[in-house]
Amino acid sequence: MGKKPAQPPFLPTCREEMAAIGWDGLDVVLVSGDAYVDHPSFGVAIIGRYLMAQGWRVAVLPQPRHDSAADFKKLPRPRLFCGISGGNLDSVVSNYSGGGRVRDHDAYSSDGDPYFPGEKNKKNRRRPDRAGIVYASLAKNTWPGITIILGGIEASLRRFVHFDFKQEKLRGSILTDAKGDLLVYGMGELQVAEIARRLDAGKHLHAIDGTCERVKGSEVADGAVILPGWEETIKDPARFMAAEKIIEKTARHGEEKTLFQKQKSGGVIQHPPARPLTAAELDQLYALPFSRRPHPDAGEVPAWRMVRDSVTIVRGCVGNCSFCAISRHQGNRIISRSHESIIAEVKKIAAAADFNGTISDPGGPTANLYATGCKRGGCRRRDCLMPRVCPELEGNAGEMLTLLRQCRKIPGVKHVLISSGLRMELLLKSPELLKEIIRHHSPGRLKIAPEHSEAKVLSLMHKPEFRVTEDFIRAARKIGEREGIKVRFSPYLISSHPGADNAAARALAAKLEKTGLTPKTPQDFTPTPGNLATAMYYSGRAPNGKKIFVARNREERRQQRQALERLISGRDNKKRDDKKRRPRSRK
Ligand code: SF4
Questions:
Q1: CA 326–ligand 1 middle distance (angstroms)
Q2: pLDDT at 148 over 60
Q3: Alpha-carbon span 542 to 548, nearest angstrom
Q4: Fewer CB within 10 Å, N side or C side of the chain?
Q5: Residue 386's pLDDT band (boundaries 50, 70, 90)?
Q6: Residues of CATH 3.30.750.200 domain(s) within the chain?
Q7: Which of 384, 394, 429 to mutate to test the pocket of ligand 1 (most atoms within 8 A of CB)?
């Protein structure tokens, strides 16, 4: 590998842009289902910049047309591999609502428009469903024999037999369906660098940590854990749940195990997870020269607007909520960036000519897991918050406090607002940090995630009991009274989670009314790929095998939502009436 190429303002997306930076060839092409935004909150930008920092010439092919290979031909054949991602979200989640309704807005596309400019055929969305499969076939048609590496959240969570809520059926691994050479699961930096090194050296791609391989026959790697395969899982939903439990346990515990699952044809081997980046490596990653903007051809990208002045301070989450796939994708090792690295990024943001003075979120999967860790370096259980906060979990609210205070002092910064989720049970243990957040860092409402109130539903969600929410609201309001601040809450609630029935929905509405919490429109549970709650949805069973109620059809889901909507509209009517009754102020 020759001299490392200089990092350009944007990675090229066509030959003309390659020529403009003096490139006569490419090592890697990254295809994405999203518009190209060169910001560290976008997976393809991170992977592209990281590979460039290793010395490879990388181009990005954002949202190529998929009714022909024309857009693929805008770039020369990459020397090493073609990396494919469905985008920042699973393509089906981006394209459809939980109820399967076609989305008419796409936050990850130019101007939020899900269709190509002037597109009449409403089937021809910018991002095809199961984008990885479609893009892999177009890449192979354009560059016969090219090495196909699938990555990103879509591939990561569809790496084994999974449920597809749009087709309402089980599907085999996306690696086999796309006939890809390798699938990278997890955040992927270390894996893609190893893949590039090996291909550059003409070596094989076997047994790279954090990857899945496709095997033709059913030859199983020695010592591999055999998951219930395709035949078993489509015949018996309980076998699908059994497979999901093993995958979840292996991910949660970060076990150095190899997993094998037979597919419709051949099988998939999952090698042990890649180690997480160290804090120093994470600092280096976020110090890469991102332009923090959409590519000039991408125009306005709504998702960018939401994160443009945000800063990722932590990776990983130890919450292990059943409906969330973070531990399967990001892992549950908490890696926190250094103050210096975060402050440097905030200064870079504040120095931008169009900075509006607000840092929108020093956050991550859970903001206040920043600087937490396990006193004993981890255990087999790795379930640090459930059923209650583990005494070995070392919270370090002081670190977060200092960081927030340092951020507020940076010239040009008027506000530092935390928009990421906050774990209430941890904030209850750090009242100083809670006070600081209430006084300086809450965007008008504290974002909390009780998700539900009923014990049987919370236990299936793997969330703490509702008493934690009640204690938190009480503590926050007390601080508010002392500080002369009216504390409001933005509670995240999931409606129709597996195990929740109408009675549970009504009980939830009653509890919220009692605690004076005004719910936002509840989020209907969406059975997305790669989490235990979806396995409950599909199998109608809890992980312990017990039968549970699952609201599947539109009417059942509407009824549950209605219980909360009634509460919301009741509140709105009361507010309106109060306003009417209030005597007019004399100007
Ligand atoms: S000992 Fe406790 S804090 Fe440490 S990893 Fe295990 S569950 Fe988490």
A1: 17
A2: yes
A3: 6
A4: C
A5: very high
A6: 444-582
A7: 384
DSSP tag of 224: P
Cβ < 6 Å from ligand 1: which residues? 374, 376, 378-379, 381-384, 390, 392-393
Q: What is the pLDDT of residues 160-190, one digit of tens each?
A: 999 999 999 999 999 999 999 999 999 999 9
Pocket test for ligand 1, best of 252, 333, 381 (most atoms within 8 A of CB): 381
Q: Spell out the CATH class of 444-582.
A: alpha beta
Question: Token pair 């109408």 is at which residue?
Answer: 502
Mutate to test the pocket of ligand 1, among 333, 369, 376, 380 (most ligand atoms within 8 A of CB): 376
Instruction: Say how many Å lie between the CA of residue 454 and the centre of ligand 1.
Output: 26
Q: How far is the CA of 379 from the centre of ligand 1 (A)?
A: 5
Lowest mean pLDDT among 19-28, 141-150, 335-344, 488-497: 488-497
362 φ/ψ angles, rounded to the nearest 5 degrees: -80, 95
Q: Where in the chain is the domain with CATH 3.40.50.280?
A: 15-213
Closest of 537, 572, 539, 562 to residue 551, by C-alpha: 537
Ligand 1 atom closest to the CA of 380, numbered from 1: 6
- Provide the 10 A C-beta neighbour count for residue 404: 21
Q: Helix or strand or coil: residue 225?
A: strand
* Separation of CA 381 and ligand 1 centre (Å): 7
Q: Residue 213: helix, strand or coil by DSSP?
A: strand
Does 430 have pLDDT greater than 80? yes
Rg (CA), the chain: 24
Going by CATH, does the domain composed of 15-213 fall within 3.40.50.80? no
* CA distance linking residue 170 with residue 563, whole number of Å: 31
Q: What is the pLDDT of residues 316-361, one digit of tens each?
A: 999 999 999 888 888 889 999 999 999 999 999 999 999 999 999 9
Residues 60 and 180: their CA atoms lie apart, in Å, by: 19
Tokens of residue 99, six digits = 């109820």
Determine the Cα–Cα distance for residues 173 and 158; give it in Å rounded to an integer.
6
Position 399 pLDDT exceeds 60: yes
Q: Tokens for 335?
A: 């890696």
Identify the band that residue 583 occupies on the pLDDT scale cut at 50, 70 and 90: low
End-to-end CA distance of the chain: 75
Under the banding of pLDDT at 50, 70 and 90, the label for residue 58 is: very high
CA 64 / ligand 1 centre spacing (Å): 44
Residue among 383, 394, 396 whose CB has most ligand 1 atoms within 8 A, to mutate:
383
C-alpha 457 – ligand 1 centre gap (Å): 24
| Ligand 1 atom 8 nearest Cα | 384
543 Cα–ligand 1 center, Å: 22
Q: Are strands 489-495 and 523-524 parallel, antiparallel or unpaired?
A: parallel
Determine which residue's CA is closest to atom 7 belonging to ligand 1: 384
In this predicted structure, which of 115-129, 439-453, 542-556 has the lowest mean pLDDT?
A: 115-129
